[in-house]
């Protein structure tokens, strides 16, 4: 009888724990919805292609600076309207560097792993993503955040950028390095569970 009770308690605890780790906490779900990630893939892992990837990234980011938006929905619309302009910027940089690789620039949903940047961590999940594929797109990736414009924001301005983009203090705390590491632990648990059940 005691074994059944202990077993029931353990199973109940596991179910509650699983539900708590999957349910959004402190606006976690909105983190996915309030961002547009940037994903640049190089043609290959050669030194030349990796250097070209960074130059293409810079050209795309420079053009993307003109995409001013009040929120993620507006940023999505403006980015979608700018796809050809962003593609042209990438193509021009590729030609300028002496390459003839084709380039594809798309906007859609893409799954990202947990990613640590300088001073903040983004949880694994499905984000809206601007993808820039150079040539065969078989080289190493470069990831960042297009909206809010964190790729170009200095560390001192980061909180202002998040808040201006509509993030709450709780959401900002959830993704920045802070003394409260429970969010990072939670993100890791969610990532592991999703990988197990994928």
Produce a short descriptive summary.
The protein is 50% helix and 20% strand. It has 198 residues and is an alpha+beta fold.
Strand tally: 6
The helix-strand sequence is HHEHHHEEEEEHHH
- Main sheet overview: 4 strands, mixed
Across the major sheet, the strand order is 2-5-1-6
User: What's the shape?
Assistant: globular
List the total number of helices. 8
Helix content: 40-55%
Rg, please?
20 Å
Spans where pLDDT lies below 50 across 5 or more residues: 19-27, 178-183
Measured between the Cα atoms of the first and last residue, the distance is 36 Å
Mean pLDDT: 79
| Oligomeric state of shown chains | single chain
- Strand percentage, roughly? 15-25%
Based on secondary structure, the structural category is alpha+beta
Can you characterise this structure?
- The protein is an alpha+beta fold.
- Strands 2-5-1-6 form a 4-stranded mixed β-sheet. It has a two-stranded antiparallel ribbon with strand order 3-4.
- The protein contains 8 helices and 6 strands, in the order ααβαααβββββααα.
- Helix 3 runs antiparallel to helix 5.
- It is globular and about 75 Å long.
- A hairpin with a 2-residue loop joins strand 3 and strand 4.
- It starts with a helix and ends with a helix.
- About 8% of the residues have low confidence.
């Amino acid at each position: 009888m005691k074994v059944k009770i202990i077993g029931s308690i353990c199973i109940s605890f596991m179910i509650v724990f699983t539900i708590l780790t999957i349910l959004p906490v402190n606006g976690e779900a909105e983190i996915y919805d309030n961002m547009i990630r940037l994903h640049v893939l190089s043609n290959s892992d050669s030194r030349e292609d990796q250097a070209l990837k960074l130059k293409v990234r810079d050209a795309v980011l420079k053009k993307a600076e003109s995409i001013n938006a009040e929120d993620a929905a507006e940023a999505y619309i403006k980015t979608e309207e700018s796809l050809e302009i962003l593609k042209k910027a990438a193509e021009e940089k590729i030609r300028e560097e002496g390459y003839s690789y084709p380039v594809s620039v798309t906007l859609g949903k893409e799954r990202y792993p947990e990613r640590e940047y300088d001073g903040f961590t983004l949880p694994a999940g499905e984000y809206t993503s601007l993808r820039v594929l150079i040539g065969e797109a078989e080289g190493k990736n470069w990831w960042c955040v297009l909206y809010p414009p964190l790729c170009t924001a200095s560390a001192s301005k980061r909180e202002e950028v998040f808040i201006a983009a509509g993030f709450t203090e709780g959401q900002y705390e959830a993704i920045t390095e802070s003394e409260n590491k429970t969010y990072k632990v939670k993100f890791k648990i969610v990532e592991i569970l999703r990988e197990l059940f994928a």
